[in-house]
Write the structure tokens for this entry.
Amino acid sequence: QQKVQQSPESLSVPEGGMASLNCTSSDRNFQYFWWYRQHSGEGPKALMSIFSDGDKKEGRFTAHLNKASLHVSLHIRDSQPSDSALYFCAASEGNYQLIWGSGTKLIIKP
Amino acid sequence: EAAVTQSPRNKVAVTGGKVTLSCNQTNNHNNMYWYRQDTGHGLRLIHYSYGAGSTEKGDIPDGYKASRPSQENFSLILELATPSQTSVYFCASGDARQYEQYFGPGTRLTVL
């Protein structure tokens, strides 16, 4: 079983809508969580990190962490076509290695 | 901005041949990583390094070797390539003071 599981595998959202991506960990040693975004033909790029319980907002992106339930989510408001990409959740115990989920493919429909 | 480059960008190899994938970073990061990406598996760690001269096995090291001759360069070596190693390979670098990783553009490897 993967230690970091993402859902859904694929998500289609109309332009201007809200996209919600989920990530669940099975390892309570994970303390640090990241969201990465990968556009087609490129390498992943860090979108935002979240290390503490609660919400973290950066522009149109809001991450939420609940360490008790080992659940992390990413919400994208006012979705744009440029947000279409593969989104990865990654977790770390603090040893500079990241454990990756299998990704959510987000499609923004104009 | 932090920069990680990979070469070649595309490679076709024959089964049993030797393949070397190269990675260069200008970030002056101590840590470097090699991943492969396959549909449904996300990113899987093959080898990583904490600095020049060091290499460590990741989660799927079988069939791969790594070399870190300098702070800037990290290579992935397939001594006897097999079709199961057909994949997209990513190199990344990371600062020892934080956990963010910076990725290169990837190498698409096809083993026939």
In short: Chain B has a mean pLDDT of 94. The interface with chain A takes residues 4, 31, 40-45, 48, 58, 90, 92, 94, 96, 99-106 of chain B (CB under 8 Å). The longest strand of chain B covers residues 31-38. The radius of gyration of chain B is 13 Å.
